[in-house]
Amino acid sequence: MSAITSRTGTVLITGTSTGIGWATALRLDRLGFDVVATVRRDEDGERLRAEASDRLRTIHLDVTDAAGIAAAAADVGDWVGERGLAGLVNNAGIGFAAPLEFAPLPAVERLFAVNVFGVLAVTQAFLPLLRRGRGRLVNVSSTASVFVAPFHGPYSATKLALNGLNHALRRELRPLGVDVILVICGSVNTPIWTKAADLGEALTGEIPAEATVVYGPRYERLRAFFGRMGEGGVAPAVAAAQIAGALTDRRPRNTVFVGPDARLFRVADRLLFGRLRDWVVWKTSGTG
């Protein structure tokens, strides 16, 4: 890893109520950045501010609300003025698992609205401030875009789409002085695993009984597999350290992998192909 600079300034982070976003907001605050952290509930903002310095601000933001995004960009623009933004971290995201044959389309559309279109909408709104500050854009993705497991298709599809947006943005913006970094997280012990399970449970009523007959045992093994991954994942602070590095390294890498399983999946993705890759995925997740 390259040497750390003394970069400071204002950084906006989406999805800071828990997990990676929460840990990243506190780490950047400790490094001396002026952090603007987005939350969905007042109590989450109060808890975060209680742990941080007086510099940290929280704002309400739903990444699917165009008017709210525009208002947030205007407010942040007033705060930073000609300095612009030093960084934007697109971290907000949701997920669930379901057989694609029976996945409710409104739920899939909601995933794309948050994980893909929300990321692009926030990026579009804040890019003028990033260009002004010659800041950095960090997009938080997942090994679900590398290790595509059965029944994880909706979430994996959103992260594959996010990766594509990231690569295009990097090539469009680097000549303009804005570095774009993709952070691919493996298993991180955050509430997203519980939230995904809860969302999956909520969707069960919309999935016909036939799905249980066709996919039931394999689907349950997949859910157990991801439960074990979540419990054994690295702490959110590990991901936060990598995101901080992406914002402060003299020469940031294009892609950063977080956690030992993320690095393992990266190697496996390069070495495995065809039916062998499918067999390894089935065997690993217990869904074959």
Short description:
The chain is α/β, with parallel strands linked by helices.
Q: Could you report the average pLDDT, rounded to the nearest whole number? A: 90
Rg calc: 19 Å
- Main sheet? 7 strands, parallel
H and E string? EHEHEHEHEHEHHHEHH
Helix tally? 10
| Distance between the ends | 38 Å
Helix content: 55-70%
Into which percentage range does the β-strand content fall? 5-15%
How many runs of DSSP E, i.e. beta strands?
A: 7
Spans with pLDDT under 50 lasting ≥5 residues? 1-6
- The shape is globular
Which structural class should the secondary elements be placed in?
Answer: alpha/beta
Describe this structure in words.
Strand 5 (136-142), helix 5 and strand 6 (179-185) form a beta-alpha-beta unit. The protein has helices at 19-30, 42-51, 66-80, 105-133, 153-173, 192-203, 209-231, 236-248, 260-271, 274-285, and strands spanning 10-13, 34-39, 57-60, 87-90, 136-142, 179-185, 255-258. It is built from ten helices and seven strands.
Blueprint (SSEs and pairs):
Layout: E1 10-13, H1 19-30, E2 34-39, H2 42-51, E3 57-60, H3 66-80, E4 87-90, H4 105-133, E5 136-142, H5 153-173, E6 179-185, H6 192-203, H7 209-231, H8 236-248, E7 255-258, H9 260-271, H10 274-285
Parallel strand pairs: 1-2, 1-4, 2-3, 4-5, 5-6, 6-7
Helix pairs in contact: 1-8, 3-4, 4-5
